[in-house]
Design brief:
Layout lengths: L1 H25 L2 E12 L4 H7 L6 H10 L1 E3 L1 H7 L5 E9 L2 E8 L3 E5 L4 E5 L13
Antiparallel strand pairs: 1-3, 2-6, 3-4, 4-5, 5-6
Length: about 130
């Protein structure tokens, strides 16, 4: 009898834990707003014109942040190309409002006045996101 009770409680605990995890993963990035599309950090006319094609949908933004990995500022600087084309907006992450910027080369950032989270998404991990890389 005790074994059945323990097994039953274990199943309930595991099921509840998994369902809570699944819910938090799917709701992690929400209220996505796109403020700027196809912007350029470079003033060169050719680059500025090419960057205009870099647009992101809300779904693409969500996929980028869900599929990318968090990296340090040093990793961002030393291991990734910071390409000039980007799109920006805002989103909620863990119940906080963040500004976001995603660059065409697969790097991005979430930021508030007090926090910066650098993100990078490889070509393989983000192959399902149009216009990236």
């Amino acid at each position: 009898m005790k074994i059945n009770l323990i097994l039953g409680l274990s199943v309930i605990f595991i099921t509840t834990s998994c369902s809570n995890q699944k819910q938090s993963i799917t709701e992690e990035y929400s209220n996505i707003k796109i403020l700027e599309q196809g912007q350029s950090l470079d003033d060169d006319e050719v680059i500025t014109s090419a960057c205009k094609e870099f647009t992101m949908s809300k779904d693409s933004v969500s996929k980028f942040f869900s599929q990318s990995k968090t990296i340090s500022q040093i990793e961002l600087h030393n291991q990734y190309d910071i390409l000039p084309c980007y799109s920006t907006g805002t989103l909620n992450f863990n119940s906080k409002l963040y500004n976001w910027r995603i660059r065409v080369g697969g790097t991005g950032v979430l930021s508030t006045d007090k926090e910066t989270i650098n993100k990078a998404c490889s070509k393989v991990a983000c192959s399902n996101i149009p216009n990236l890389h």
